[in-house]
Design a protein that fits this description.
about 525 residues; alpha+beta; Alpha-Beta Plaits; five-stranded mixed β-sheet
C-alpha cells in the first residue's frame, strides 16, 4: 500500500484535501451505497478504506471505513451494528468530529432490541443536538441526518424525520455526488409523506389527512426531479396512484392501469381496493395487498391494509363488527402512544440542548476563541492538576513570533489571524498528548512539557521551530515568512511562576541574540 506526503495547510489552518484524499473519500461514499445492494462488494472494502486512511494519515477516511463496517454488518451480515457504532463513536469523539459522533449515536439509537429504550432515545436526542450546530456542505452530515431519520421512523416520529430530511438536503456537497444523494432524500421524503397520509386516514382524521395529502403531492412532484433513476420513478408513480386512491385530487384521479408487479405490487392492489365500489372485489384486492406488502419494509402501509380489510369486512356485513371496534381502538391508542413518544423525545432533545449549551459555555471559559488552544484559565487548571497528581519537574517553553506586528501591518489582520491559527496547529502537532499548548495573548504561546530532561525539551522545541520556519507561509499570503523565538526553562512545576519568569528571561535573550533561535 502506498502513502502520500502530508497535505498542505489551508489559510484557515485546516488541512487541504489532496486529489488522492478526495478520491479515497469518493470511493468510500460509493461503497456506502454499493454495500446496500444485493450484488455489491463485501467486507474487503471496509479493510481497504480503514487501511488507506491509516496509511495516509486521513482520520476522516478511517471514520468512513468504520461507517462501511456498520453498513456491512447490518446489510450484508444481517447483524446488530451496535458494537460497530460504538467503535466509530469512540474514534469520532476522540477526534472531535461532531458530525460522525452524531452519526454513530443515531445508528446506536436504531438498535433498541439490544439496548434499553431510554438509552437509545437519549442517543438519538444527543445526535439531533450535535447536528443542530453544523453548517455548510458535508456528505458525512447528510449521512448522519439520514441515520437520524431512520431512527425517528422506527419510532413513528415523522415530524423529526421530516426535519432531518430538510436539513440533509441543505448539507449536500456538490463535489461529492450530490445528485445521487438528493435522489435518495427526495424519494424518502415522498414515501414518508405517503405513510403519514395512510396513518391519518386509518385514524379517521379527515381534515388533517387532506392537508397532509397536499404536502405529499408536493413531495411526489419534487421527486420527479431529473436526478431520480428510472426504477425509482416507477415507485414514485405507484406512490402517486395510492395517494390519489386515499385522497382523490380535485377533478378526480386517472384510471388505474398499472400492473401489480415488483416490490410495490401490493400498493397497486391496495389502490384498486380503495378505488372500487364493489365490496367483494375490494376485499379481494385488499387481501392481495396484504399478501404482497412486506410488513418489515413497509410496516405503515401494511398496517393500513389490515385496517382497511377490517373496515371492508364490516361494510360487507352491514354492521359494525367487534373486530372493527377493536381495530379502531388499537389505532387510536397507537396514535396516542406516537404523540407521547414525540413529546418525550422533544423533552430529551431540550435536556440535551441545555447540557450542550452548558458544556460549550464551560469550554469557552478555558479555550482561546481564535486558535482553539487553552487559555490562561485552562493553563492554571492544568498546572494545578499536575501538582495534584504528584508531578514535580517539567519544562516551560515560551514561543513568541518574530516581528508579528509587521505581518499585521504589511499583510493585514486577517492574514495575521490565519498565521496564529496555523501556528496553533504546528504547536499542537509538535507536542505529546500529556503536554499542554496555551495561547497567552497576542502572538505569545506557552508549552508546558511533561519532561524533566533539559536536552529533551530543547530537541522538542527545536523541532517545533524548524516546522515553523519551513512551513509554506506564502500559501497564506505572497511573500509571507514567519519565524519564532523560544525561551525554555526546566524546573519544579510547583513553582510555576518562577519557572515562567526564567523562560521569559530566556526568551528575551533569544530575541536579543537576533531572533529565530532558542535560549535556555
Amino acid at each position: 500500500m502506498t502513502t502520500v506526503a502530508p497535505e498542505p495547510l489551508a489559510t484557515d489552518g485546516s488541512r487541504e484535501r489532496s486529489a488522492a484524499h478526495r478520491e479515497a473519500r469518493a470511493r468510500a461514499f460509493e461503497y456506502v451505497l454499493a454495500l446496500q445492494t444485493v450484488d455489491g462488494p463485501g467486507r474487503e472494502v471496509v479493510d481497504e478504506m480503514i487501511g488507506v486512511g491509516e496509511a495516509n494519515g486521513w482520520p476522516d477516511v478511517v471514520r468512513l471505513g468504520m461507517l462501511l463496517d456498520i453498513i456491512c454488518t447490518r446489510h450484508r451480515e444481517q447483524r446488530s451494528a451496535s458494537e460497530c457504532a460504538t467503535r466509530l463513536l469512540e474514534h469520532a469523539e476522540r477526534d472531535g468530529d461532531r458530525v460522525m459522533t452524531a452519526l454513530a449515536l443515531a445508528v446506536r439509537a436504531q438498535e433498541r432490541d439490544c439496548r434499553a429504550p431510554v438509552e437509545a432515545d437519549r442517543d438519538l436526542a444527543r445526535a439531533v443536538v450535535l447536528l443542530e450546530g453544523h453548517e455548510g456542505p458535508s456528505t458525512e452530515a447528510v449521512s448522519a441526518h439520514v441515520q437520524c431519520c431512520v431512527a425517528a421512523e422506527s419510532r413513528d416520529l415523522w415530524e423529526l424525520q421530516l426535519r432531518h430530511y430538510d436539513m440533509a438536503e441543505r448539507c449536500l456537497d456538490p463535489d461529492e455526488d450530490a445528485d445521487g444523494r438528493r435522489a435518495v432524500l427526495l424519494y424518502n421524503r415522498a414515501e414518508l409523506q405517503l405513510n403519514w397520509v395512510a396513518a391519518l386516514l386509518e385514524l379517521g382524521a379527515e381534515a388533517e389527512m387532506r392537508d397532509r395529502a397536499a404536502l405529499a403531492r408536493h413531495a411526489l412532484e419534487a421527486a420527479e426531479d431529473p436526478v431520480m433513476v428510472d426504477s425509482w420513478r416507477e415507485d414514485i408513480a405507484i406512490f402517486r396512484d395510492l395517494l390519489d386512491a386515499m385522497s382523490p385530487p380535485d377533478g378526480g384521479a386517472p384510471p388505474l392501469t398499472r400492473a401489480a408487479e415488483g416490490e410495490y405490487g401490493g400498493y397497486v392492489h391496495l389502490a384498486r381496493a380503495l378505488r372500487t365500489d364493489d365490496l367483494a372485489q375490494a376485499r379481494a384486492d385488499c387481501d392481495r395487498a396484504i399478501a404482497r406488502i412486506d410488513p418489515e419494509k413497509s410496516n405503515r402501509i401494511y398496517l393500513f391494509s389490515l385496517a382497511l380489510a377490517v373496515e371492508l369486512e364490516a361494510a360487507q356485513a352491514g354492521h359494525e363488527t367487534a373486530g372493527l371496534r377493536w381495530g379502531r381502538e388499537l389505532v387510536a391508542r397507537r396514535w396516542d402512544q406516537r404523540l407521547a413518544a414525540l413529546a418525550s423525545m422533544q423533552s430529551l432533545i431540550d435536556v440535551e440542548r441545555l447540557a450542550a449549551e452548558h458544556a460549550e459555555l464551560q469550554q469557552h471559559a478555558y479555550v482561546d476563541d481564535l486558535t482553539g488552544l487553552a487559555n490562561r484559565r485552562a493553563l492554571a487548571r492544568f498546572t494545578h492538576g499536575l501538582v495534584a497528581r504528584g508531578a514535580s519537574t517539567g519544562a516551560i517553553a515560551l514561543v513568541d513570533l518574530d516581528h508579528f506586528k509587521q505581518i499585521n501591518d504589511g499583510h493585514g489582520h486577517a492574514v495575521g489571524d490565519a498565521v496564529l491559527k496555523r501556528i496553533a496547529l504546528l504547536l499542537r502537532a509538535g507536542v505529546r498528548d500529556q503536554d499542554l499548548v496555551a495561547r497567552l495573548g497576542g502572538d505569545e504561546f506557552l508549552l508546558l512539557l511533561a519532561m524533566p530532561d533539559r536536552a529533551a525539551a530543547r530537541r522538542r522545541c527545536q523541532a517545533i521551530m524548524a516546522s515553523i520556519a519551513t512551513c509554506p507561509w506564502a500559501e497564506i499570503s505572497p511573500g509571507l515568512d514567519v519565524t519564532a523565538s523560544v525561551g525554555v526553562a526546566v524546573g519544579s512545576v510547583e513553582r510555576f511562576d518562577e519557572l515562567c519568569a526564567r523562560a521569559d528571561a530566556a526568551l528575551y535573550r533569544a530575541k536579543e541574540a537576533g531572533r529565530n533561535r532558542l535560549a535556555d
